[in-house]
Design brief:
four-stranded parallel beta sheet; 9 helices; two-stranded antiparallel sheet; globular; 13% strand; single chain; alpha/beta
C-alpha cells in the first residue's frame, strides 16, 4: 500500500506509484496547503510548462481538512483550463481520441469538493490507461504512515525535484509535440503522457520504475 495526497491531473510520478501499488490510500484528512498538486497540474503549453490551478473557496478555519475544501467558480477557470488543454494538445496523436472523455469535466459536470473532482478525474485516467489499483480514502489523519505503507503525501510535490524525492522513479523520455522547440519536459501532468502516447502510456509508467 502507498499513501498519496489528492491531486489534480497528477504528474507522471504519481501515476507510476499507482501502477506499482495494489492498494492506494488517498489522504483527505490532512490540512489543506496551497501551491501543491492538490489543486494544480503542469502541462506542456506551446511556450513551455504551464501551471493550471483550480481556485478554491477560502475555508472557515486555517486548519481545514482537504476533504472540506470546496471548488470556487472564480475566474471562469473551467473554460480557461479546457482552452489551455486544447491549445497544448490539439495536435497530439491522441487528443481527439480522448477529448470527449475529458470535456464534460470542464463543460458540464460540477463538483462541490476538490477531492471528489480529483478522484473522478483520476478514475477516468486509470480507466483509459488500464490501471486498476484499489483506492480508498483516509478516515483520520496519520502524521506518519503505518508500518509497511510507503508515504508519498509530501514527496510528490511541485517544489521538490522528483529525482531527489524518490530513488525508485525516473523520468523516461517519450514523444512530446513541442519537443523540438522546448526539449523534453519531464514529469508533467499525466494528460501530457496520455495525449502524446495513448495506450503506450502504461509502458512508459512501467519503464519509469526502478528497482529498490
Amino acid at each position: 500500500m502507498i499513501l498519496l495526497s489528492t491531486a489534480y491531473l497528477a504528474p507522471i510520478h504519481y501515476y507510476a506509484k499507482l501502477f506499482a501499488s495494489d492498494e492506494v490510500m488517498i489522504e483527505q484528512m490532512d490540512h489543506y496547503v496551497k501551491q501543491t498538486y492538490r489543486n494544480r497540474c503542469v502541462i506542456a503549453a506551446p511556450d513551455g510548462p504551464l501551471a493550471l490551478t483550480i481556485p478554491t473557496v477560502k475555508p472557515d478555519t486555517e486548519k481545514a481538512p482537504v476533504r472540506d475544501i470546496r471548488i470556487s467558480d472564480h475566474g471562469n477557470w473551467r473554460h480557461l483550463h479546457w482552452n489551455a488543454l486544447v491549445s497544448a494538445y490539439n495536435h497530439t496523436p491522441y487528443f481527439e481520441y480522448y477529448r470527449d472523455d475529458f470535456a464534460p469535466f470542464y463543460e458540464e459536470k460540477r463538483y462541490t469538493f476538490l477531492v471528489d473532482y480529483n478522484e473522478a478525474l483520476m478514475q477516468l485516467v486509470c480507466d483509459l490507461i488500464d490501471l486498476h489499483p484499489k483506492v480508498v480514502r483516509s478516515s483520520f489523519y496519520r502524521p506518519q504512515a503505518p508500518q509497511g505503507v510507503e508515504d508519498y503525501r509530501e514527496r510528490i510535490h511541485p517544489k521538490l525535484p522528483f529525482h531527489e524525492a524518490d530513488a525508485t522513479f525516473r523520468s523516461v523520455p517519450y514523444y512530446q509535440v513541442f519537443q523540438e522547440r522546448l526539449g523534453f519536459l519531464p514529469n508533467l501532468s499525466i494528460v501530457d503522457l496520455l495525449f502524446n502516447m495513448g495506450p503506450e502510456s502504461l509502458i512508459v509508467l512501467q519503464q519509469s520504475l526502478l528497482a529498490k
